[in-house]
Design brief:
mainly alpha; 6 helices; globular
């Protein structure tokens, strides 16, 4: 399989999954003000995608890694969504802005590192 085809196939799966999970989580979040404004769906999507990326990086190689890491996880997670969501919060939800701006990157890097390290230790 060519790398471009692998990325396209993974992306075709990852992007709709991101949209559906973000929508599902966002619709289930209740609460007033900043708690409701916080991008919980984006946090779930990006942390889960980062966790999967850690496993994929540690456990795969070649075309499978390209399909899953670059295609699927790349389309599933979204830095542009992070930029948009935090910018949306700034005018009226400053506390949620700061929580998202600090919390989302930390959660994603932590999820990736934990999954990567555990997978490396299990797969040897």
């Amino acid at each position: 399989m060519s790398a471009v085809l692998a990325v396209a196939l993974g992306g075709a799966i990852g992007a709709p999954l991101r949209y559906l999970l973000d929508l599902w989580v966002t619709r289930r979040v209740a609460g007033p003000g900043s708690a409701r404004a916080f991008p919980w769906g984006l946090l779930c999507v990006n942390a889960l995608g980062s966790l999967v990326a850690g496993v994929v990086l540690a456990a795969t190689t070649g075309d499978l890694r390209t399909l899953l890491l670059v295609g699927l996880c790349g389309a599933f997670t979204t830095f542009s969504g992070f930029g948009w969501e935090t910018t949306r919060l700034w005018p009226s939800h400053r506390s949620a802005f700061w929580a998202a701006a600090a919390g989302l990157p930390v959660a994603c890097v932590a999820a990736f590192l934990v999954a990567w390290q555990i997978t490396r230790s299990v797969t040897g």
